[in-house]
Amino acid sequence: MQAEKKSIYSISILTISLVSLLFILCFSFYLSSSSSPSSAPRSTTLTFLSNFSSAPPPPPSFAYLLSGSDGDAPRLLRLLSALYHPRNRYLLHLDLSASHDQRLRLASSIRSSFPPSSSNVAVVGRPGHSNPRGSSTLSASLHGAAAALRLWPDWDWFVTLDASAYPIVTQDDLLHVFSYLPRDLNFVQHSSHIGWRESRRLKPIIVDPGLHLSARGAVFYATQRRDLPDAYKIFTGPNSVILSREFTEFCIMGVDNLPRTLLMYYANTPAAHKNYFQTVICNSVQFNRSIINHNLHHVQWDNSSKVDPRVLGVDDLTNMTLSGAAFAMRFSADDPVLDLIDQVVLNRGPGQFVPGGWCLGRGSGDPCRVWGDPDILRPGPGARRLERAIVDLLSNESFRNNKCIWE
Ligand SMILES: *[C@@H]1O[C@H](CO)[C@@H](O)[C@H](O)[C@H]1NC(C)=O
Ligand SMILES: *[C@@H]1O[C@H](CO)[C@@H](O)[C@H](O)[C@H]1NC(C)=O
Ligand SMILES: *[C@@H]1O[C@H](CO)[C@@H](O)[C@H](O)[C@H]1NC(C)=O
Ligand SMILES: *[C@@H]1O[C@H](CO)[C@@H](O)[C@H](O)[C@H]1NC(C)=O
Ligand SMILES: CC(=O)N[C@H]1CO[C@H](CO)[C@@H](O)[C@@H]1O
Question: Is residue 316 in contact with ligand 3, taking CB distance under 6 Å?
Answer without folding.
Answer: yes
